[in-house]
Amino acid sequence: MTTTTRPVRRVGELLRDWRQSRRMSQLDLSIETGISARHLSFVETGRSRPSPELILRLAEQLDVPLADRNTILLAGGYAPAYPRHELDDPELAPVRAAVRRILDGHGPFPAVLIDRHWQLVEANPAVALFTDGAAPHLLAPPVNVLRLSLHPDGMAPRIGNLPEWRTHLLARLRQTAVGTGDAVLHDLHEELRGYPGGNCHAPATGDPVSRVAVGLRYRHDGRELSFLSTTTVFGTPLDVTVAGLAVESFFPADAATLRALGVRGGDAVPPS
User: Fold this and answer.
1) What whole-number distance in Å separates Cα of residue 149 and Cα of residue 35?
2) Exposure winner among 23, 225, 269, 270, fewest CB in 10 A?
3) 232 has which bridge partners?
4) Same-domain status, 248 and 169
5) How far apart are the C-alpha atoms of 105 and 128, rounded to whole Å?
6) In whole angstroms, what separates CA 187 from the centre of its chain?
7) pLDDT in the model for residue 197
8) Do 44 and 134 fall within a single domain?
9) If we measure between CA atoms, which residue out of 257, 254, 249 comes closest to residue 145?
10) 0.70 exceeded by the pTM?
């Protein structure tokens, strides 16, 4: 039996790949970080060993995800700079409490906590609005919320503007996959774009909401509900796990949706 191992990549190669992915020249990066282009070239070719401080300075300027900054440090022979705690570790208790307040306070409207691969971590009870009718295999942990949204056995048949919503989600996923260099997200994008649902390359103009943002029109109990979504992330995270967390919250986009969800007096949205 033969086993193969992936070659260990050098710190300079990793930094060069991130620089090129950000479409920056050595001169551009050297100007932004205050080091000479000659020194940067020596680092990338392995002729000079960068200090951990230099690695972090370059990684910060290149907006390298925290997990990948640790990988670059390890390639340079240094210890990781950013911890990776589990969400139920005591160190992340304030994070859990903050997320719980957001999810609970958002009711009766749906909100979910997802990780960096769009897997469901936690949700408020109102999310049952979206999961109702989905196939059991899509709801078995770990639940991927993008797969749940676009799979023909998931939410897709009940999305009234599926081409627009699908195009929006795929573009967002592709942008994140390219920006992070995450192979899991690249594979997920390839999977999801193979699902049926159509594409929409022009903004919709059928209602006031669609003129300002891509909303979600969702059929439930014989009614079409209209939502706008927001994404909340933790500012300046220093933990790998926390850096990958995001809360996706859905807000009613019209008074009819407010009434359908049992809220009276919809002053915050225009009448429908």
Assistant:
1) 46
2) 23
3) 247
4) yes
5) 16
6) 14
7) 87
8) no
9) 249
10) yes
Kindly write down the DSSP assignment for every residue of the chain, as one continuous string.
-----PPPPPHHHHHHHHHHHTT--HHHHHHHHTS-HHHHHHHHHTSSPPPHHHHHHHHHHTT--HHHHHHHHHHTT---SS----TTSGGGHHHHHHHHHHHHHHTTS-EEEE-TT-BEEEE-GGGHHHHTT--HHHHSSSPBHHHHHHSTTTTGGGBTTHHHHHHHHHHHHHHHHHHHT-HHHHHHHHHHTTSSS----S---SSTGGGTS--EEEEETTEEEEEEEEEE--SS--SHHHHT-EEEEEEE-SHHHHHHTT----TTS---
Q: List the chain residues with pLDDT less than 50.
A: 1-5, 270-272
Q: Are residues 58 and 99 in the same domain?
A: no
- State the total domains in the chain: 2
- Inter-residue long-range contacts of 93-98, CB under 8 Å, 24+ positions, other chains counted: 95/234, 95/242, 95/245
Pairwise CA distance, residues 162 & 150, whole Å: 8
Domain, as residue range, for 70: 11-75
Place of tokens 């897997």: 119
Number of Cα atoms under 13 Å in the Cβ half of residue 125? 5
* Token duo for residue 198: 């159509």
φ, ψ for residue 144, nearest 5 deg: -95, 120
Distance CA 272, CA 266 (A): 10
Do 105 and 162 fall into the same domain? yes
Measured CA to CA, the distance from residue 219 to residue 129 in angstroms comes to 10
Strand bridging mode 111-114 / 246-252: antiparallel
